[in-house]
Amino acid sequence: MLSLVVAPWRRAPVVERNPDVPHDAASTMKVAVLAALHRGGADLDRRIPVVNRFVSVTGTASFANERSYDSDDEPWELLGGTASLRWLAGRMVTHSSNLATNLCLAEAGREAVARVWERAGARGSDTPRGIEDAPGRAAGVRNLATAGDLVRLLESLEPELLALLEGNVHRVDLAAGLPPGTRLAGKNGWFPGVRHSAAVVHPPDAGPYTIAVCYTGPLANGEDVDDPAARLLARISARVWEARHTLAK
C-alpha cells in the first residue's frame, strides 16, 4: 500500500493517493510526542533519570527498549544517569532515538499526544503506544498514521518545532530525492514492511510544500540506509521536486 499527499504550504493538497488509509505509524509518531512535550509547559532544561523501563499503554504491564533495535546510541550511554528533556527531545527527532522517545512520552503523557493529533485535524491517526510496547501490541493497541494526517500534523507545528525537524540526520528517502543542501523539515520511520517519510520542503526558487509518503509492503527491508522502499520514496520526491513550480497554480 502506497499513500501520497503533496500540498503547497498550508494550502489544499494538489496530489492525493490513498490519503486516509492508516499505516503503522512507525517513528513518525515521534513528531506528535515532540509537540506534546513542548506544548505541555514542562521545563525542558530539567534533567530526568534515563531509565529503560516504561509503563505499557495497557496500564497493567511494563516493557523495555532493545538497544540493538535503536538507531541512536547516545541516550543509552546515559542509562542510569540523567539528561535534559530538551536534549532527549532533540535526539528523538534528529536521530530517531527510541529510548529518548519513551522517556519524552512518559513526561508528556498519552493524552497530550492525542490532543496534538486532534489539534492538527487528524482523521485517522492515533499514537497512544510507546516504542516497543509489546504488551500494548499484544492487546491490539496500534499506532496509526495516514499520509493526509502527517501533512496536517506538520502544518500545525510551531516554527521552533519545524526548526528541530530540520536537524533530522536520516536523509535516505524524501531528502535523497532532492538536490543536495535543499532545506527540509521532516521525520521518517521504518521497520521491516514499513517506510514512511513526511517533510516540509523549501525550494530556493519556489514556494514551500509539504509531502508525505507512507509505504507498507515487501520493498521495505527495515534497514536504516540500504532500503529499496527508501529509494522508492526518493524517486517520488524527485518527481515532485521537478513539478515544484506548478504546485501552487
Task: Write down the Rg.
Answer: 17 Å
Largest sheet: 5 strands, antiparallel
Total number of beta strands: 11
**C-alpha termini separation:** 29 Å
Average pLDDT figure: 96
- Helical element count? 9
Q: Going across the major beta sheet, what is the strand order?
A: 2-1-11-10-9
DSSP helix fraction: 25-40%
Spans of 5+ residues with little confidence (pLDDT < 50)? none
Explain what this protein looks like in three dimensions.
GO terms for molecular function: hydrolase activity. Keywords: Hydrolase. Pfam families: Beta-lactamase2 (PF13354). There is one protein chain. With 249 residues, the protein is an alpha+beta fold. Helix content is 33%, strand content 20%. The chain has 9 helices and 11 strands. A hairpin with a 6-residue loop joins β5 (54-55) and β6. α1 (29-39) crosses α4. The protein is globular, with a radius of gyration of 17 Å.
Break the fold down into its secondary structure elements and pairings.
Elements: E1 2-8, E2 15-17, E3 23-24, H1 29-39, E4 47-49, E5 54-55, E6 62-63, H2 74-77, E7 82-84, H3 85-94, H4 98-108, H5 110-120, H6 134-138, E8 144-145, H7 147-155, H8 159-165, E9 183-191, E10 194-202, E11 209-216, H9 228-242
Protein name: Serine hydrolase
Domain Beta-lactamase class A catalytic: 15-214
Keywords: Hydrolase
